[in-house]
Predict the 3D structure of the following.
Amino acid sequence: VLTNFHGMSFTTDKLKSLVRKWQSLIEAVVDAKTTDGYVLRCFCIGFTKKGQNQISKTTYAQSAQIRQIREKMVEIMSREVTMSDLKEFVGKLMPESINKDIEKACNGIFPLHDVYIRKVKILKKPKLDLSRLMEVHGDVSNSAGGDGSKVSRKGGFVEPAVQESV
């Protein structure tokens, strides 16, 4: 079965489990185009983290720091999307490598934790190219009988005889 990527998002219970009091929530949105012509809108979320040996219970970032962090998030997300095609980008979403890059880059501004790409929307798709679709899905063989030929069945399956009356 050939499938295509239509988008991804966090479930509401996962999102609500991340949000807590006494920390800043930082979100960023970016629209970017992949090398194979898809236009994606990516949403990122991150939270400020207590420093080591911190006594105060709040970990709020100043608005200037939040702007700098948001700028870094947008820069990293747009770089990752524009430098790869859709298949590579979806592959990067699974091991959360983009999230770790954002966390490392923003650590100098303010320490962050729970940084995620929480949602990806496909805004625009290129025209459907069948050869491109087959290339994306790799070694799809014609053993499914796509050319109209009869498919041989494995095992001891025998077609039942046609009944005259029920």
